[in-house]
Amino acid sequence: MRTANSNQGQSIVPDTNEINEYIREYLRYSNYSNTLECFDAEIKSKQVSNKMLNKQQVIKQTGDDMPRIFQLLKSDNIKTKREINLEKEQKQFNKKYQQILQAGRQIFSVSINLLQLLHSLKETAKNENLSETLENYKIQLGKYHKVIINEGKPEGTELITEQVMHEHKTKLFKNYQDKHVDGMIEVLLSLRVNALQIAPELRKNLVYELIRNDVFNIEATDKFDFVVHLLDINNQSLRHAITSLISVISSTLRGVEYLTYNGNMIIIEKIIKILKEQENGSVTQRFCLAILQKASIKDTVIPSYVQNEMIQWIINLIQKSINTKIHVFCLDFASATLANIIHTPYTLQYLEHQPRFAHQVMEQLLKFIKDQIQVSVLMHILICLSYLSKENFAKQMEECRFVDRISQFVEFYSVINTENEAAEIDKKTVLDLCAHMFHPKDTSLDNSETLELNELKTEDRIREYENEQGELIFECFQDEVS
User: SS3 letters for the chain?
Assistant: First the structure.
C-alpha cells in the first residue's frame, strides 16, 4: 500500500529538475543568456532551493494552484481509464496469442509423428498414390509450420514461381483425368495455402498470376467444362477446396471478369446452386457468399442473381437468423450482396415491373429494422431501403408506411442505451446514415438521371481503387479443418 501511494504521489507533480532543464533549453534556444545565468545562479543558492522544496510540498496538497507548466507535464503522465483498459486487453491478447502459438507447435508435433507412422505403413503397403499423398502432406505441413515459427507474420516476399504454378496446374489436371479426388483437393488447397502465406501487398499480383496462368483452363479452351465438372462433384472437401480458391480469384475485378469470361455466368450459377445446398453458416456456404459478394461489384452478374432468386434467399436467411444462430460472416456478406443487387438499374427496373414483389421486399426490410440484428446487417438493410425510396416505388412506400416507419426507427434508435464506446460509434453511424439517406429533401425525388450518371464508370472506379490499394483480404476461418 505504501508503494502505491508513494508512486501515486510522485506522478502528481513532475520532477523539479526536469522542469528546470526544460526552462534552460528554452532560454538557450531564445538566446536569453543573461536570464539563463541568473536562473542558474538562483537555483544554486541554498535559500532558493529550500523555497522550491517548500513550494513543491504545498503544490502536492493544492494541485489547483500549481503553475501551468506543472499541469501540462502532469497531464502527460496520467493515463485515461480507456488507455488502462486497452493495456489490460493487450496483455490478455498477447497471452492468448502465445497460447495459440504453443498449441500450434503441439499440433505440428503430433502431425509429424503421424506422418512418420504413415511412412512406416507405406513401406509395407507399397502404394504409389500413398507415397505421393504423403509428400503433398509434407509440403503443406512445412508451409503451415513456417507460418507458426514466424508467429503468424507472412513469410513470403515473392510470388509463386512460374514453374511451381505450372506444376500445380499439371497435377490438378492429371488428378482430374485420373478421377483422383483427394489429389485434386491437395493441389487446390496447396494453391490456397500459397495465397494465404504470401505477403499481403503481393496478394493482388498473385491473383493476376493465377489468371495469367489460366488455372481453370477457361481462356485456353473458351469453355468452363473443367471448373464446372469440379463444382459438380458431390464431395464436401472438394467443394470447400474449389470454392476457397475461387474466392481468392474473385478478390479483384479482373478475377471476376476471368470467372465470367465472355459474359458466361455458369460459374456464378453453380456457386448459387452450391450455396443453397449448404447448411446455413457452414464453411463452404461462407466461401460461396464471399464469391457472390465480391462478384456483385460487376453489374453484368446481377441478372443471374435476380433470376436465381437470390433476393428471396438472402431475405429468408436474415429472417432465420432472428431465431436461429447463423454465422456472422454469412449475414454480413449476404446483406452486403443484397445491397449491391438492389442498387443496380437492372434490379430497380425489375422491381418496377414486379410491384407485388417490390412491396414484399420493402415490407420485409422495414420489419427487419425493428428486430435485434447485428449492426452491419442493419446498415446494409437501411442502404437497401434507401435505394427503394424513389418516386418509382411511391405506391409501395405509401402502402408500407415507409416514411413513418423510418421516422419511428430513428426516434427509437436515437435513445437506445449503448454498453461501450464501440457501440456508441455504431449507433452514431447508423443515425448519420439515416440522416444522409432519408433526408426529407431526397425521399420524394426520382433521381434516375442522376443515379445513372453516378453509376457510370463504376468498374473504372473499382479498378482505380485496386491500383491504389495493394493489399487484399483472403478469407480464412478457424473451423475450416473440422
Answer: CHHHHHHHHHHHCCCHHHHHHHHHHHHHHCCCHHHHHHHHHHHHCHHHHHHHHHHHHHHHHCHHHCCHHHHHHHHHHCCCHHHHHHHHHHHHHHHHHHHHHHHHHHHHHHHHHHHHHHHHHHHHHCCHHHHHHHHHHHHHHHHHHHHHHCCCCCCECCCCCHHHHHHHHHHHHHHHHCCCHHHHHHHHHHHHHHHHHECHHHHHHHHHHHHHCCCCCHHHHCCCHHHHHHHHCCCHHHHHHHHHHHHHHCCCHHHHHHHCHHHCCHHHHHHHHHHHHCCCCCHHHHHHHHHHHHHCCCHHHHHHHHHCCHHHHHHHHHHHHCCCCCCHHHHHHHHHHHHHHHHCHHHHHHHHCCHHHHHHHHHHHHHHCCCCCCHHHHHHHHHHHHHHCCHHHHHHHHHCCHHHHHHHHHHHHCCCCCCCHHHHHHHHHHHHHHHHHCCHHHHCCCCHHHHHHHHCCHHHHHHHHHHHCCCCCCCCCCCCCC
